[in-house]
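dumping this here so i dont lose it again. seq + smiles for S-adenosylmethionine
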Amino acid sequence: MILVSTFVILYKSRFMRLTHLHLFDYLYRAYNAWPRIYDGITQLFSIGQWEKWQNRVFDDLEGKKILEIGVGPGHLLLKMVQKGYRVTGLELRKGMAYEARRKVKKAGLDIDILQQSVYRLPFKSETFDCIVMTFVLAEIVNLDKAIIEMKRVLKKGGKVIVIAGGIPQDRNIIAKLLFKFIGSQTTLRIERDNKGYFERYGFAVTRTDFGPFNVVNKIVSIKK
Ligand SMILES: C[S@@+](CC[C@H](N)C(=O)[O-])C[C@H]1O[C@@H](n2cnc3c(N)ncnc32)[C@H](O)[C@@H]1O
């Protein structure tokens, strides 16, 4: 009850809304800026489930040629390569790209990790069987532009596999209040209807929700 009251007070507080503190953005920027602390923070936030959530992409991967966008420190990228997929990595932030390349080198592998944004993909049309993005979508401001580029480089019948955090799907009041509070403190796109966007671009889309309060979702979009 005390917890619920605290969230209600914080959310309703004019101070929090008027000053636009965006406290969560500072935390998010900090962990993206220091790749070495990234793993610790993601483990904390996901109660140790981050890797398990990422691994859900393997249920849908098809074909061999994979593009991972927003590789972060590169854990999933390495795992896909070790399972025999031919993966190209893309990462916007220099520090993260550096960390992913370091991991790849340490593992004795040779994988292309380009420092580039999803908005301009340096690949020919219809190159990849699958595109994978885990916990990246909330950072993508212009999702229309990103989808147009992803659709272009994807082969016909290919899939975009997204794992993302979003609105809790349970009717749990604590989850809703917590989400409202986080939503008021961030500019990340956590409330957007990502599935609807992919549908508007002619993909066949399915969505599965999981994790605490069903706050994590997997969106698989097939290019028709
Ligand atoms: C929360 S991290 C997720 C990293 C990793 N996929 C994971 O599951 O741990 C989001 C990553 O997306 C990258 N990113 C954000 N915007 C991007 C863009 N426009 N193009 C490519 N990568 C982007 C960030 O630099 C960051 O490394």
